[in-house]
TrEMBL record:
Keywords: Aminoacyl-tRNA synthetase, ATP-binding, Ligase, Nucleotide-binding, Protein biosynthesis. The keyword Mitochondrion does not apply. Transmembrane segments: none annotated. One of its GO terms (cellular component) is cytoplasm. The keyword Transmembrane does not apply. GO terms for molecular function: ATP binding; tryptophan-tRNA ligase activity. The gene is trpS2. InterPro entries: aa-tRNA-synth_I_CS, aa-tRNA-synth_Ic, Rossmann-like_a/b/a_fold, Trp-tRNA-ligase, Trp-tRNA_synthetase. Its EC number is 6.1.1.2. Residues 1-22 are annotated as: Disordered. It comes from Enhygromyxa salina. It comes from the Bacteria. Gene3D superfamilies: HUPs (3.40.50.620), Tyrosyl-Transfer RNA Synthetase (1.10.240.10). This is Tryptophan--tRNA ligase. GO terms for biological process: tryptophanyl-tRNA aminoacylation.
Length: 353
């Protein structure tokens, strides 16, 4: 079992929570956009990284899609570990393994106007991608942000780094936290969204409308787990402005990137020569990931152990929060009141008289 090091300072670190739906492997765009900063924030924050499998069910509830989860869940945990997420610092957990989150989601639903959900562009977008029209939109998809609010609030998280489309969901979590605190008791810190850096990384492959952004659904990604030959082969498909966009995104030194881009634009740097430099820069990023990935993969059962440990820890946190919520709302006193009377009756009946 992985040891969890206690923070040496007395002041508790702010909690950070973020994560991904396990729909497939993570790619270079994820690395530059969000994964690198997650790794960097592991020391300054207490990090919770959710593998949001329940959220995948909002658009993919079919049996066959659920059957893909074991593989996708494992892949995403391996991606996180390979980029340098350290399970002794960060809690990686499986959302569906924390049932207290559903309890919390039900209670939070009472405080979220349905009209706020219906007007969200993010939900319309997810429905569109999944080919679901308005008539058939499930309550689960409409309630996607409610479940996300439960994720965030169960951990009493303060900082939520997300992609731009998810900022509105964090806002809903913040509003519901504020309302809850006013109505019942001060249980939740108010979570704040933080927009992840948008990497100006286009997709690989032929030109086309989907080429402007690397994305899984467009099938134009360089995956973190791709072998070196595959990465090189993919990079060699780039030309023109997309090739320059890669140069700008991948060279740490902006002066160097700018000089290269300028040379390429002026025709002084050939595509082939630029490819070789890009391949080198990309390999400098991906080679250490590949090494860590191989080490985690070679250790049979380690990935599962890390996820189980993290999920157990998330359960503890979630139950503690749920308990406070039930107490604040009067549900726990309701139950305790019943128990008290029933207990008294049982005692009285055993009494000889
Ligand atoms: N909605 C996120 C996504 O687009 C995943 C997610 C689920 C999440 N719960 C979260 C992100 C809580 C941040 C906080 O994949």
């Amino acid at each position: 079992m992985s040891e969890r090091s206690e923070p040496s300072t007395t002041a508790p670190k702010a909690r950070l929570l973020t994560g991904d739906r396990p729909t497939g492997p993570l790619h270079l765009g994820h690395l530059l956009g969000s994964l690198q900063s997650r790794v960097a924030m592991q020391d300054s924050h207490e990090c919770f990284l959710i593998v949001a499998d329940l959220h995948t069910l909002t658009t993919r509830p079919e049996r066959e899609r659920i059957a893909e989860l074991p593989r996708n869940v494992r892949a995403i945990v391996l991606d996180l570990l390979s980029v340098g997420i350290d399970p002794s610092k960060s809690t990686i957990y499986l959302q569906s393994g924390v049932p207290a989150v559903y309890d919390l989601a039900i209670l939070l639903q009472m405080l979220i106007p349905a009209s706020h959900l219906r007007s969200l562009a993010s939900i319309a977008q997810m429905a569109k991608i999944a080919g679901v029209d308005d008539e058939r939109m499930s309550l689960g998809l409409l309630g996607y942000p409610v479940l996300q609010a439960a994720d965030i609030l169960m951990a009493r998280a303060q900082l939520i780094p997300v992609g731009g489309d998810n900022l509105a969901h964090v806002e809903i979590a913040r509003e519901v936290a504020q309302l809850f605190n006013e109505m019942y008791a001060d249980v939740f810190p108010l979570p704040e969204g933080q927009a992840s850096r948008v990497p100006m990384l286009p997709g690989i492959g032929p030109d086309g409308p989907a080429a402007s952004k690397m994305s899984k659904s467009a099938g134009n990604t360089i995956n973190l787990g791709d072998p070196a030959e595959v990465v090189a082969q993919k990079l060699r498909t780039l030309s023109g402005s997309r090739l320059r966009a890669f140069i700008d995104a991948l060279f740490d030194d902006p002066a160097q990137a700018e000089a290269m881009s300028a040379e390429h634009r002026a025709g002084q740097l050939s595509d082939a020569a630029a490819h070789e430099q890009l391949i080198q820069a990309t390999e400098a990023l991906l080679a250490p990931l590949r090494e860590r990935r191989a080490a985690f993969e070679a250790d049979d059962g380690l990935i599962e152990e890390i996820l189980v440990d993290g999920t157990i820890r998330a359960r503890e946190v979630a139950y503690a929060t749920l308990q406070q919520v039930r107490e604040a709302m009067g549900l726990e006193p309701l139950w305790k009141g019943l128990i008290d009377v029933a207990e008294r009756r049982a005692l009285a009946r055993k009494k000889p008289y």
